[in-house]
Amino acid sequence: MTSGLPENPYNPHAWVIGDPVIGEGTWIGAFTIIDGSGGLVIGQGCDVSSGVHIYTHSSARRCVSGRAFNEVEREPVRIGDRVFIGANAVINMGVTIGDEAVVGAGAVVTRDVPARTVVAGVPARPVATVELSDEASRRPEFPAIR
Question: Which Pfam families match (predicted)?
Answer without folding.
Answer: Hexapep_2
